[in-house]
Amino acid sequence: MSNHIANGRLIVWVTLFFGVMFQIMPLPSLVELWRPDWLLMVIMYWAMALPHRYSILTAWFLGVVLDILLGAHLGIRAMAFSLVTYIVVLHFQRLRHFPRWQQSIVIAAFICLYHLVVFWLEFIVVGGVQFKTEYLQPVVSSIFIWWWVFWVLRNIRRSYKVR
């Protein structure tokens, strides 16, 4: 394996690590409800940019890691990440060519789907979980954060020539 390929993979995994860290870092209670889904956005970016290398298995693995770190029921976020990533990989060529504003709306729809799948699975597994509109607040914040996440990750990919 060449050094260039190994470095590119290292760069991607470092960005995914930072996505995990941003996802679990403590925030004040007022801001906590609006926390963007950092890790899911990073996964979706790499699934659009390099779908042959980072897709469903990567999403499933990181979902299990996030379930363990959050102390949630094992596999719930893994299933939701995998489903959303599958849809992104199916349509990656189309998503790449959308303007950023349109891409952020589609990303928000995917994040909404993620939250609904997590709610549905927790409802089935745990039972008694009630749906609240606050549950979808990260969708709104992720619309605005996606522009920044896309710009940062694209510049990282280009400057380190990740392929």
UniProtKB/TrEMBL annotation:
Identify the species of origin. Shewanella denitrificans (strain OS217 / ATCC BAA-1090 / DSM 15013)
**Cellular component, GO, one term:** plasma membrane
Supply one GO BP term: regulation of cell shape
Q: What is the lineage of its organism?
A: Bacteria, Pseudomonadati, Pseudomonadota, Gammaproteobacteria, Alteromonadales
Q: Does the keyword Acyltransferase apply?
A: no
Is Cell inner membrane found in the keyword set? yes
This chain belongs to which protein, by name?
Rod shape-determining protein MreD
Q: How does it sit in the membrane?
A: Multi-pass membrane protein
Q: Where in the cell is it found?
A: Cell inner membrane; Cell membrane
| Pfam families per record | MreD (PF04093)
Q: Which UniProt keywords apply?
A: Cell inner membrane, Cell membrane, Cell shape, Membrane, Transmembrane, Transmembrane helix
Primary role: Involved in formation of the rod shape of the cell. May also contribute to regulation of formation of penicillin-binding proteins.
Concerning its family, UniProt says: Belongs to the MreD family.
Q: What is its main location?
A: membrane
Any stretches that span the bilayer, and where are they? 12-31, 104-129, 135-153
